[in-house]
Amino acid sequence: MRTRISTSHPRTSHPLRVTALSIAAVSVGAVLAGCSSTSSRSSASSAFSAANCKGGTLTVLEQGSLSEFDPARLYTSGGGQIPALFFRALTTRDRVPGAAGDTVVPDLATDTGEPSQNATVWTYHLKPGLKYQDGTAITSADIKYAVERTFDAQLAGGPPYLRDWLVGGDTYQGPYKDPKGLSSIETPDADTIVFHLRKSEGGFPYLAAMTQFAPVPKAKDTGTQYADNPVSSGPYQFAGYTPKKQLELVRNKYWSASTDSQRLACPDKIDIQSGLDATVINQRLAAGVGADKYAITTDTSIGPTQLAQLTGNKALASRVITGAFAETVYLAFNTKKAPFDNQLVREALSYAVDRQAVVNAVGGSSLATAATTFLPNQSALGYHPYDYFPAGASGDAAKAKQILAQAGYPNGISVTLNYENTDDDGDGPAVATALQAAYAQAGIHVKLAPTGTDSDAFRAVVGDTANEPGLSLNTWGADWPSGAPFLTPIFDGREIVQGGGNFNLAQYNDAAVNARIDQINQITDNTAAQQQWGDLDAQLGKLALTVPLYFPKNLTLFGPGVKNVYLSEWRGTYDIAVVSVK
CA 25, 29, 30 angle in degrees (round to 5)? Predict the structure, then answer.
């Protein structure tokens, strides 16, 4: 649910993946070589000073349609980094290079939250002097109202956690139907907000960074029309908006850097052009002429032409950020449907998989790393390497046949693979075809079933528990840098959503695993929790509930006039909130 470069949440949409092209990756070290630093922020372009970065117009070139800017819905509907320019939440992620960028820090709040009662109660205090674009004060009541409106059905599409976490959240229908609001969100004064959870959630400060927690003044709420002109709490505000085409941002004169250390707000204006072709975006960024000299993209990885140019063009190579957003492309089994209710069948498909063919299908090692674990290879998530069904680089057909015979299929098996019918996402026809060819070597005959015309249509099919196919090709990315949002929605049986919107595609429900998830969620020390999430991933991996295929990589261009461009480790690309054109 997210854009591979620009967002961080469940099933994602992704930037262009290059089919059947393998070229040496540009290393992060090479890209960032020669960078200067300012207040722990490093610039991959020319000299940069945070004290003297104001001015100019930044151009943002996007594939995404930019059709939704209601903070309640900014999750499955895209938007990527752009909402951070005009929405602030209680917390945010530290905007610095390297592993420190995985750390949650205060935003509107004075700290990352005060846990009590075994992390079932979280208290926040707002910084003084916070204002909207019209100069009115931001209050705790505005944040309470903002959270409550995410429960209304007509604003559906945001992260599902609060419905499960907040006391009373499972039955609440939003403030339009119930203006009394949720009693589990208290605002004892204008600067204090308290959340009462029905279970321990040590990762709540990460959730509090999502746009669900961006304040919405009740008096300015226009319901489903709010997305067209939301009230800014950040450094920029809407100056002009044509849905699916263009968004113009100008400074919010009431925003103060004294209350916001995370957004440098360097450009005077930001011109966001959307609905563009990926090839056109990369051509414009590579050329870097006119306004495109000061251009970036938040949702497009570089294409074959630029990849081919990198080894012989040092100037172009110096304008590439290489990174990886924490996500996994994988095969999902519906264990409620034969033959995938048989673990041996699932193991056979795990042994037979040709990961090298899959990696080649999405562009080679420049753009993908073969995966044998569900958790991506990032320490913040608790990554533990394991490979319980070793297939080598190109699959172990003989072992797969042996396991199939033990499962009762000595003559092989026929299965149907559902997948999104586009290669833009890196989990479509190219990967499906590569899998089909490899599995044939092991007597596993795969019928290809392209499903839907876009991500939403695909999700409507595979996320429906009643009609979910037995085998599907999917992507999952973490909502914040922890194993919790990576493993919980996929393997916690209590997260199974009957009907539509389900992500636990195995429909796996084990009381012991559910209890283990609760136990880890009580840990408020993220470092201590990492080891536990990694252990759980390794435990679940033995059950062959999924076949991990690869971890995507991003190679992202920026214009020659853009400064303070450094790798945001969590996002896997650069951060729009700190770049400069001056």
Answer: 65
Q: What is the CA radius of gyration of the chain?
A: 23
Q: How far apart are CA 397 and CA 403, in angstroms?
A: 10
Q: How far is CA 51 from the centre of its chain?
A: 31
Asked whether 444 and 352 are in contact (CB, 8 A), the reply is: yes
Cβ contact 557:282 at 8 Å: yes
Q: Domain 70-228 is in which class?
A: alpha beta
Say how many residues make up the chain.
582
Strand segments, DSSP code E, in 252-393 are 269-273, 295-296, 320-323, 327-333, 368-370
Confidence of residue 535 (pLDDT cuts 50, 70, 90): very high
Q: Is 200 exposed, middle or buried (0-12, 13-18, 19+ CB in 10 A)?
A: buried
Q: Which CATH architecture has domain 327-552?
A: Roll (3.10)
pLDDT band at 19 (very low <50, low <70, confident <90, very high): very low
Neighbours of 475 (CB within 10 A): 23
Q: Rounded to whole angstroms, how far apart are CA atoms 489 and 55?
A: 43
Q: Are β-strands 413-420 and 444-451 bridged in parallel, bridged antiparallel, or unpaired? A: parallel
pTM of the model: 0.83
Q: Which residues are registered as beta bridge partners of 114? A: 123
- Please state the domain extents for the chain: 1-64+275-324+555-582, 70-228, 327-552
Judge whether residue 41 has pLDDT over 50: no
Q: Do 391 and 355 form a contact (C-beta atoms < 8 A)?
A: yes
Alpha helix segments (H runs only) across 34-113: none
Tell me the per-residue pLDDT of 296-354, one tens digit each, with 9 for 90 and over.
Answer: 998 888 877 778 888 889 999 999 998 888 899 999 999 999 999 999 999 999 999 99
